[in-house]
Amino acid sequence: MNWTKAERYRSLRDVSALEMEVLRAKTTASPWRFGYHIQPPTGLLNDPNGFTYYDGEYHLFYQWFPLGPVHGLKHWYHVSSTDLVHWTDRGVALVPETKEDSHGAYSGSGFVVDDTLHVMYTGNHRTDDWTRHASQIIGVLRDGMIERRNVAIPDIPAGYTEHFRDPKVWEEDGTYYAIVGAQRTDETGCVVLYRSTDLNDWTFLGEVKTELEEFGYMWECPDVFELDGKHVLIFSPQGIKPEGHRYHNIYQSGYLTGDLDLNTSTFNHGAFEELDFGFDFYAPQTTEHDGRRILVGWMGLPEIEYPTDRYGWAHALTLPRELSLENGVLKQRPVPEMKQLRTNHFVNESGAHIEVISPERYELELSTSGEDFELELLKTEDESLVIRYKKETQELTIDRTNAGEPFATEFGTTRTIVLDVTSLHLFVDSSSVECFVNDGDAVATLRVFPNDDEKRIRYVGEDATLVGWKYE
Description:
The protein is mainly beta. Helices cover about 5% and strands about 55% of the residues. Strand 6 and strand 7 (about 130-140) form a beta hairpin.
């Protein structure tokens, strides 16, 4: 379907209850709906936004175009959870209806001030000739809806284009800071800093000085925080060319670790590292509560057609991951609360050849001796997702060439990381796989769209142990 501008920029306010009901029925008919991931009720989900612990719950919003699997007028949808596992649907929380966000409430972050959940997001406005203008807007959550408080940053500073978005706000020593993704006028990507003492007047501190002067044409969804005495800067650069096993997705997400000087806006850092070596991961955001730093990402990518499109919906959010910095390496582990979903074991075996029938949704742990192995998931007569490891080259490869309905094949059907592999921790949910390697040394996130035949798991290699739990 070719969507016109008029169709893409309809507000939810203008959509009848009957039209939404028809859309919901179409979405519900999809064979690939999730069991335990956050997914849109209809339409397209993308970036996680406003991730905040507030009033005894984790609050999480996401970009939402309600009317179909395309990027149109972005609203914010709201879910909340006390345990990061069971999420309560709180409905749409932000409908773009001011001049500044007339063409979309784009991404932003959440923070708590005076016992009230605040957000700062990018308002996207288009003029009659379709010229873009971005503003950074602060809102507050009241009675389930985000109400606009003020336009905090109305204009773009000199030297940058209107690709200026996705503010992440934090407080330090009574001062508020915001880091914003930007594009210089020479069409290279970067991030910039602002400061405020009252949330009304924001001072432009300048660009964060890094060693990545020419690293893509736009840096989206920046996030900065401290772990183990170091600063971590997460961002999603666009326009990075493939390099060996790295950077094969249309766009990337990764991080730098080092020391950020807020007085000089200088960041002394190590090398850029990808957060996820899978096929379908982008635009992550973190929050902190009770000493834990938790990350959630968009399980999808822009400008890719997915098989669920024909059912009127697209994408999901990843499982929450707990972050730690260990010997300079950012580790990502599934939050331990996920164990609540375990029911009965469907496999608990050791050996060199293991094959079992698998449920539709499950958690699986593989412990190996570090030798060569091949693990097939979602295996039917004609299909399987293959994860293979070669000790000699220390290459772990995920191959979805024959893992169901093909899509995005122009970006390749395998992903590889070089690592000494001794364990995998996998979460499978209808149309997704998240694979944690070596207790969080690496993660791969991917979508798969298998047929509805009975599925099996097959392991072949040196002696290993396979333990799996069914998820209801």
